[in-house]
Amino acid sequence: MLLRMCPRRWPGVTRSRYLRVMTMRGRWRRRTGMTAATAAFAVALGAVVTSGLALAHPIEPARHTVNVVPPAPLTYSSSDTQAAKVAACTAWDRAARVITSAGKQRASIAATTGRSSGETYEARTVEKRTMTSQVAFLRTHIGSATPSEVRAPIIAWIGIQIDSMHEVNMRNWNAANHAITQGNDLVDVIDAKCGFS
After folding, report:
1. pLDDT band for position 53 (50/70/90)?
2. CB 84 within 8 A of CB 147
3. How far apart are CA 41 and CA 33, in angstroms?
4. What pTM did the predictor assign?
5. Quick one: which of 20, 31, 59, 121 has the fewest CB in 10 Å?
């Protein structure tokens, strides 16, 4: 009797139901996949348990232990406040004179060429640019050391100048005239506070 040499097979199993020879290689793949799936399931189960414990026993947040102290208000010497007052008053005087000069020039052109002429339109544009640049210049000269009795009326005057130019842009002449009157009233106050009058 001749014995045939066959590949090594599992004892008792020679063929699968699909007529393929079952070897050790196919079973290892199946076992590896099952092991990986079991490990992934165990990790997911651990995550669920950890989340449940965290929700059941929340950790108390840390208490605020740092006391925040606001900084002390800045104090300025009398020479600092005097210098800031002189700088603000000088800048305001210059800005007011330049803005007034541009307004007078626009009014003069409007009186000679008419309110809706091209020259008047250009003069009004120059007046707006002049007012905008002078307000920006004035704002840079008002500091925290400027005394409030000077700073408050100058800031109010700046706001009134902006309002009057807005009303001119909107062609609301009554409101523009009212704003100009308010600005002229503040000029007297600022003159007195700055010592110009």
Report:
1. confident
2. yes
3. 12
4. 0.61
5. 59
Report residue 190 as tokens.
């600022």
Q: Which two tokens stand for residue 156?
A: 């109010």
Contacts of 118 (CB under 8 A, 6+ apart): none
Q: How far apart are CA 103 and CA 177, in angstroms?
A: 13
Q: Tokens standing for 87?
A: 């700088």
